[in-house]
Amino acid sequence: MDRQLDTGKSTSVLEGFQKLRWFHISDATYMKYLFIAWMTILVFNPGKIEGQLFPVVAPIEITKLDEATDGMSIVYGKSDKLRDNCSFRYVRWYLGDRGHIDDPATVNTGPAIIRTQGPFEFGPWLIGISAKEFLHNSYGDAYYRCKYWFGDSPWLTKTYIFN
Q: Does domain 46-162 have CATH number 2.40.50?
């Protein structure tokens, strides 16, 4: 028996899409589930999760710490870049314990340097925390933009660099 096209009925794009779905739910329910999925992604911060599971750099090792004027610290150190598909954006440093209410500190990392995968040294970084507070009551995070097969990720990857 030959199939014939029923020209008496017109189908909208949405109806055509509904026929392609392997599950049959109403459009309102589908949109609700789609909204819940997107909100879950936004709430759980994919850049933070990615940085915890696949860090861009290893935690830093402080090699030299000097006290500067006005309660600032001059920091030198070394680390290891673990992923080559990510480019540095910025560092955030905080006074306090990770996970609690904290105070952001000013950070100057100096001129931009493109680093490849492997060990590297950094410094001088000028951080707005005294040397004593820096070692015992601060933490830092580095943010990177990573590239994948589809292009740049829409989020920044947050990597813990100092606790």
A: no
